[in-house]
């Protein structure tokens, strides 16, 4: 290879009839704009920004080839000429920026959130409300034709290809696996029959679109569910797909009903590339790897080692649309790194809201949350360099304000400095690194170790209070006992606790502390795979080992006052991961607890109407936060324009998504 930075990642890929400008595939993401009135204009802008910055090939969010395949009754479909006209907005915008784009065709099957759901068999999934109807032979053949018809329309709309969604437990995947296909006709029973649906779709699509059109097949290479495919079966299907006319094989990991994390921040970087590597040896067409790849160097290493021909990244392009451009310019430190939190992307989509990004609230709001230059050179003081303060200071400086940022500590980052020390949340360090760079690049004057007072701030045109939160100490008798410690002190000072620990408060912070206190000593990829019973040898069906939980040597109680589930933490799509982790490690999850006193014996409490004493070595207080703001009232009295944001405005549960967006939105309005 030449001496270009990231020579493997930035090398073109020749497909014979087309050439991709590099090995970066922007993976499919449903943004919610697909379903909004006027959403296609916004989608066009969203994709155009990423194309302009050099993405090799973009794949859209999933569009159903027919009505029954829609995820929701009113969600996106692509099946007629009216749809073609709307989609030309997207393809034209991408092509004008020199990019290529493929339309993902996705049939939800039994994952459809409607009574119209259909599948290979009438078996309801554990995450669905509706039992699907078993598809008749006529419905199967019509659906195959619908996929082919939609692909033909995609070509007419200007797309460079289509991706057929054959993984993640959607319809095609449902036909492949015995878990959801218990038919005994030509479409079920033997593995040859179960893969027939996938192969017939590919053949029908290829016949309609010709030889010079990209067909990507998203192949489930590791189902991570019971009765999933074996390694030999995956290889058989991969080679058959190549013979049927697939251009590129993309990797799929896990079904949506999988009870193993696959893309959340707890998952090690590139945790599943070894799966793609094994399949790559069996096919000759390009193969794409994916999941938790979020830096150019991780991607480069994968390609340099020959584990894949392309790298798929989806959420990293929410976090930073200029990911590829910055890699090309050897500016990796300037990339706003995806932290895998899911809080503004998947969590939003699963409740019907528009996706965005915790670290980049402008994602999917390219035409709305715009930082326009200011007409006059006004001065702004931001007090507090936590996530809200940093985001606001940078955004204001980007608009042309003269910005001073005051922080009483000797480092920026606020609560993120604590979060990054929690096992599985190390990525938060990247956000602090990014904002530190942007503060410098945008000319913000950062005053560390300075606790600003009202007198210092009188000369500014605008003052933003972002002084954050402090731990709330509950009124429990004996709360000052030496056994007791608040979460901030514990994490900040890296204190060593005893063998028995009680945690008061089971919100996101309590969950993080319980996770930290029970983390296994080994923390490499192999130990993580073992903890989640993933079969790296691919001997077992679906890649699942027999369950064998790790029990922490430290006994921990995670408790809350209210009744209900304990240990979920924040995040609709990640809460179950936190709870399952704690359950696997033997953490006691108690709800409906009344705390009475703390003394030398331990923690006195009442649970289920019975008084108990927990004879613990330490008690960690994670019972919420209170706002810190001693300045706004004084400044308002002096007639200064004051804005209070972040935890200083509303403590509640720590919510970085809310406070970063709030900071950027305020800067946009100043």
**What is the CATH level 1 assignment of the largest domain?**
Alpha Beta
CATH topology heading of the largest domain: TIM Barrel
Distance between the termini: 49 Å
Helix content: 25-40%
Give unreliable regions as ranges.
none
How would you characterize the largest beta sheet? 8 strands, parallel, barrel
Known CATH architecture of the largest domain: Alpha-Beta Barrel
Percent range for β-strand residues: 15-25%
Q: What is the general shape? A: globular
Average per-residue pLDDT, rounded, comes to 95
The tally of strands reads 27
Number of helices: 21
Q: How large, in whole angstroms, is the Cα Rg?
A: 26 Å
Strand order of the largest sheet: 3-4-5-8-9-10-11-12
Main structural class? alpha/beta
| CATH evolutionary superfamily of the largest domain | Aldolase class I
């Amino acid at each position: 290879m030449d001496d270009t930075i990231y020579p493997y990642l930035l090398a073109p890929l020749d497909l014979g009839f087309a050439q991709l400008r590099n090995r970066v595939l922007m993976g499919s993401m449903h943004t919610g704009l697909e379903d909004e009135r006027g959403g296609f204009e916004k989608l066009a802008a969203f994709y155009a920004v990423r194309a302009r910055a050099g993405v090799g090939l973009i794949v859209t969010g999933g569009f159903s080839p027919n009505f029954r395949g829609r995820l929701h009754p009113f969600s996106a479909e692509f099946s007629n000429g009216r749809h073609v006209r709307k989609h030309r907005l997207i393809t034209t915008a991408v092509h004008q920026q020199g990019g290529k784009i493929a339309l993902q065709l996705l049939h939800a099957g039994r994952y459809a959130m409607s009574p119209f759901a259909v599948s290979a068999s009438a078996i309801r999934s554990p995450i669905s409300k509706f039992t699907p109807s078993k598809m008749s032979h006529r419905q199967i053949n019509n659906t195959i034709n619908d996929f082919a018809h939609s692909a033909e329309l995609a070509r007419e709309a200007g797309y460079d290809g289509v991706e057929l969604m054959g993984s993640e437990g959607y319809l095609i995947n449902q036909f492949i696996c015995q878990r959801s296909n218990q038919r005994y006709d030509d479409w079920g029973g033997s593995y040859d029959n179960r893969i027939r649906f996938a192969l017939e779709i590919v053949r029908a699509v290829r016949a309609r679109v010709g030889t010079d059109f990209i067909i990507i097949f998203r192949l489930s290479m590791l189902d991570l569910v019971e009765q999933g495919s074996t390694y030999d079966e995956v290889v058989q299907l991969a080679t058959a797909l190549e013979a049927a006319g697939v251009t590129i094989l993309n990797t799929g990991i896990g079904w949506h009903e999988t009870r193993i994390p696959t893309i959340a921040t707890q998952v090690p970087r590139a945790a599943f590339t070894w799966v793609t590597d094994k399949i790559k040896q069996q096919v000759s067409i390009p193969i794409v790897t994916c999941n938790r790849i979020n830096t150019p160097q991780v991607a480069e290493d994968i390609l340099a080692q020959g584990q894949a021909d392309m790298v798929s990244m989806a959420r990293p392009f929410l976090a930073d649309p200029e990911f590829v451009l910055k890699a090309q310019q050897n500016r990796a430190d300037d990339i706003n790194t995806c932290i895998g939190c899911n809080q503004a992307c998947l969590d939003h989509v699963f409740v019907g809201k528009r996706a965005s990004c915790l670290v980049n609230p402008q994602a999917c709001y390219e035409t709305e949350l715009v930082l326009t230059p200011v007409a006059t050179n006004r001065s702004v003081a931001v007090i507090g360099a936590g996530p809200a303060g940093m985001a606001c200071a940078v955004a204001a400086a980007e608009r042309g304000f003269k910005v001073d940022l005051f922080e009483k500590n000797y480092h920026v980052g606020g609560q993120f400095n604590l979060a990054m020390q929690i096992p599985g949340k190390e990525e938060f360090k990247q956000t602090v690194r990014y904002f530190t760079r942007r503060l410098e690049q945008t000319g913000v004057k950062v005053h560390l170790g300075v606790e600003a007072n009202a007198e210092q701030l009188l000369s500014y045109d605008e003052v933003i209070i972002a002084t954050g939160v402090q731990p709330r100490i509950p009124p429990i008798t004996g709360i000052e006992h030496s056994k007791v410690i608040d979460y901030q002190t514990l994490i900040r000072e890296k204190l060593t606790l005893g063998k028995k620990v009680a945690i008061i408060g089971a919100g996101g912070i309590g969950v993080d502390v319980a996770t930290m206190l029970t983390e296994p000593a080994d923390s490499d990829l192999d130990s993580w795979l073992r903890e989640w019973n993933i079969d790296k040898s691919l001997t077992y069906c679906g890649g699942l080992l027999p369950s064998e939980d790790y029990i922490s040597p430290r006994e921990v109680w995670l408790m809350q006052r209210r009744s209900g589930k304990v240990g979920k933490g924040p995040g609709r799509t990640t809460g179950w991961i936190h709870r399952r982790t704690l359950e696997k490690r033997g953490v006691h999850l108690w709800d409906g607890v009344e705390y009475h006193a703390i003394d030398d014996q331990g923690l006195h409490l009442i649970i289920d109407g019975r008084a108990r004493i927990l004879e613990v070595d330490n008690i960690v207080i994670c019972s919420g936060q209170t706002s810190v703001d001693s300045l706004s009232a004084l400044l308002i009295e002096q007639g200064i324009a004051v804005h209070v944001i972040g935890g200083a405005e509303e403590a509640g549960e720590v919510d970085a998504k809310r406070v970063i967006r709030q900071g950027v939105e305020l800067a946009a309005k100043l």
